């Protein structure tokens, strides 16, 4: 019997979905439900195991050091699907492949847990479903792509395996492009309070672990007082933080210091609480950093007033 172009699968409590197949696929092979293949590809290898397991890499911007890559160990029903380009078909670039699967999985309700980057173009996607989860790992190539999918049952989250727990400063930098340091200065002076040293030490350790980060240290003030004095004060405070980081062994070329005075408030200067929030030091991922990525589609912008490095 010739293979049907689509296989209709019904599951209890789940809406019907289509599993696409092609007459040129290997016997018994089909796409994973909800994740269609790119046009021009055939399935040349298909494997299905239950129970099985797989270690999925999770968010790191540039995992050049494989010893630092976090993994999620997932057990469940595993599918491994290898796609190869049909003879004579025009190959896609790696970027086109990544963009295809990123949009496809986003439309299907998946979250990108790791996106492709220089040195490691693989991608990981994750979706929570009623009664379980789905994890997807993409290994893209110009002539062949491999998808590894694991479905889990139950609500117990898989365990994270990592050599060192990530500092929240780093997590915020990668997610938002900037982070406010919880440090304070003596009133109208450039000297940090004693309580600031543990924060500086944390930043030093973070930068030692992630030498790929290139940062801009921004000093900010409220709008009280003289504009020129606020500019001087914010610049001096940013520089004070830069000097401490360099003294801790951080490459000076990885750090820029700039004062913005009261030009970029984050709160209402009409209240004491707002003015306190506006007096701050921020670390910002520089545009020349390998860890930089463009502002998010939801409007989050690393440089809200175009004050990019």
Description:
The chain is elongated. It has 5 helices and 13 strands. The model is unreliable at 1-18, 61-67, 155-164 and 296-309 (pLDDT under 50). It starts with 5 loop residues before the first strand and ends in a 24-residue tail after the last strand. The longest helix is centred in the last third of the chain and has 21 residues, at 227-247. The strands form 3 sheets. Strands 3, 4, 5, 6, 7, 8 and 9 form a 7-stranded antiparallel sheet that branches. The protein has helices at residues 94-107, 168-176, 197-209, 227-247, 272-278, and strands spanning 6-11, 14-20, 41-57, 71-85, 111-114, 123-129, 132-139, 144-153, 159-161, 178-181, 215-220, 255-259, 280-285. The protein folds into 2 domains: 31-161, no CATH class; 168-285, 60s Ribosomal Protein L30, Chain: A. 21% of the residues lie in helices and 32% in strands. The chain is an alpha+beta fold. A hairpin with an 8-residue loop joins strand 5 (111-114) and strand 6 (123-129).
End-to-end separation? 64 Å
- Provide the structure class: alpha+beta
The backbone outline, from C-alpha atoms, is elongated
Helical segment count: 5
Rg over alpha carbons: 25 Å
Helix-strand string: EEEEHEEEEEHEHEHEHE
Compute the number of structural domains. 2
Key features?
2 domains, four-stranded mixed beta sheet, 5 helices, 60s Ribosomal Protein L30, Chain: A, 309 residues
């Amino acid at each position: 019997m010739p293979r049907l172009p689509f296989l209709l699968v019904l599951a209890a409590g789940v809406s019907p979905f289509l599993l696409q197949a092609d007459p040129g696929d290997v016997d018994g092979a089909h796409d994973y439900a909800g994740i269609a293949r790119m046009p021009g590809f055939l399935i040349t290898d298909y494997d299905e195991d239950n129970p099985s397991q797989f270690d999925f890499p999770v968010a790191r911007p540039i995992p050049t050091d494989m010893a630092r890559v976090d993994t999620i160990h997932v057990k469940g029903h595993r599918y491994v699907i290898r796609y190869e380009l049909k003879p004579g078909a025009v190959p896609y670039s790696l970027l086109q492949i990544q963009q295809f699967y990123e949009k496809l999985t986003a439309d299907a309700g998946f979250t990108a847990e790791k996106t492709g980057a220089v040195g490691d173009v693989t991608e990981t996607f994750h979706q929570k479903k009623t009664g379980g989860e789905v994890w997807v790992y993409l290994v893209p190539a110009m002539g062949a792509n491999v998808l590894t999918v694991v479905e889990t049952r139950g609500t117990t989250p898989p365990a994270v395996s990592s050599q060192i727990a990530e500092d929240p400063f780093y997590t915020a930098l990668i997610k938002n492009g900037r982070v406010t340091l919880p440090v304070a200065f003596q009133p109208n002076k450039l000297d940090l309070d004693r309580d600031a040293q543990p924060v500086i030490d944390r930043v030093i350790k973070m930068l030692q672990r992630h030498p790929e980060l290139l940062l801009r240290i921004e000093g900010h003030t409220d709008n009280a007082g003289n504009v020129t004095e606020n500019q001087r004060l914010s610049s001096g405070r940013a520089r004070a933080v830069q000097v401490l980081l360099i003294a801790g062994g951080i490459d000076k070329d990885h750090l820029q210091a700039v004062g913005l005075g009261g030009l970029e408030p984050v709160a209402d200067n009409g209240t004491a609480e707002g003015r306190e929030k506006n007096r701050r030091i921020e670390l910002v991922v520089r545009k020349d950093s390998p860890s930089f990525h463009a502002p998010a589609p939801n409007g989050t912008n690393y440089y809200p007033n175009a004050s990019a490095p």
